[in-house]
Amino acid sequence: MNQKTIFQRVLTEYKKAWETRDPDLAIRLFTPTTTYQEDPFDTRPMRGLREIRAYWAEVPKFQKNISFTYGPIFQLGRSKVWGAEWSARYTKVKTGEKVKLKGVLFCELRGERIQRFWEYWHIRGGEPSFRAKTSKSKSL
Q1: What's the CA gap between 52 and 55, in Å, rounded?
Q2: Number of structural domains, the chain?
Q3: Whole-prediction pTM
Q4: Measuring CA to CA, which residue among 118, 109, 135 is closest to residue 6?
Q5: In 28, 76, 82, 116, which residue has its Cα 20 to 30 A from 104's Cα atom?
Q6: Which domain holds residue 80?
Q7: CATH assignment at residue 111
């Protein structure tokens, strides 16, 4: 299977994991030694499946009616790094506030899984409803 097909499959599963709020599905996308940087201002990326699963377990507590779309996808030169533009919408569980996000994500693949994940995004509709516990940063 070529890398582009693998990355498209990863994005499809990422979408399903977020929209169904399934941390177990999410962590199956990553290698055991992966890093995950949710915000470029995070002081430390999440490391390993335990930290990533804990992060993804927080999502269902704060979001509902999640919709995630992506495209176009691209490869950075001849590297194992792939990227995609994405957008998402959700409703905050506690307040009913509608939130929109738009960004770009990058994945360095190892085989059929993500070895390194990082993203940049912008939010409309207030503060994000979840943050990596390892982050010491605040949203701009």
Answers
A1: 5
A2: 1
A3: 0.88
A4: 109
A5: 28
A6: 3-124
A7: 3.10.450.50
